[in-house]
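User: I'm designing a mutation panel for Antitermination protein BlgG and want to avoid disrupting the core. Could you give me a predicted structure to guide residue selection? Please restate the sequence first so the numbering is unambiguous.

Assistant: Good idea. Sequence first, for numbering, then the predicted structure tokens:
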Amino acid sequence: MITFKVDKILNNSLVLSKNSDNNEVILMGKGIGFNAKVGDLLDAEEIEKCFVLQQITDIQGYLNLIESLPDDYIELTKFLLDYASKTLQTTFRETLFFTLLDHLNYAIERYYSGVVIQNRLLYEVKSFYPKEFEVAKYGITYINQRLNISLPEEEAGNIAFHLVNGQSHQQTMQHTLLSVKMLKDIFNIIQFNFAIRIDKKSLHYSRFLTHMQFFIQRIFEQKQLQSDNDFVFQQVIRQYPDEFKCANVIKKYLINQLNITISNEEILYLILHIIRIVH
């Protein structure tokens, strides 16, 4: 049976140890630090999560944070991530636990200080990431009940950002925020060009939103769709000149925002989705 030696006790649920590669790790488990002593051995079955420290930026800052926080904050962060992983049927980067714990701590500090920071992208988060927002909203309700506080709905929007960001191994929080802004602007471009109001409850909207989210992710990861076959592209732009014109406006907007080139294959799929959403 695999065992871990306790090198340092951080709190009732977290201890420092080393793995089989002699890398420092943080071990998480209910009560594993309670009444433990340095040098004690822990069985692998007692451990719920294992964080490899060399994979985490600014780990010393997070270690200091963990040692200063109540156990409730650790448990609430773990509960929220477990619930999110199960509900969204996804896995998160290991570092999300620490960034979310840090955010939760500051959110509670702001609450007790009476400081309210408005989330100006709250409406867009609700629209573009409804599943993550509902999970975050449930988490805020649970946290409020456990701690007898009243964190506002804006915090659900902030946590949703972290959940979206934590699902990608390459996307940064800056990219997540920029993605939301660009999605909002792209929908506004389409609505303006065709003088319409897009039905955000329609299936075409949902499909277009999903396409754009993956499109923007491909841009950030430099994995745009490519094709040497120009025949279909030329056919589509001749048959749908208005949609092509709108796609070009979006293309110029993205080039201006990100200083990139966009392939004809990506523009082709963009046109096809615009056709569906405006007709």
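For picking mutation sites, this is relevant: The domain at 3-56 is CATH 2.30.24.10 (Transcription Regulation, Sacy; Chain A). Strands lie at 3-5, 8-9, 14-18, 24-28, 41-43, 49-52.
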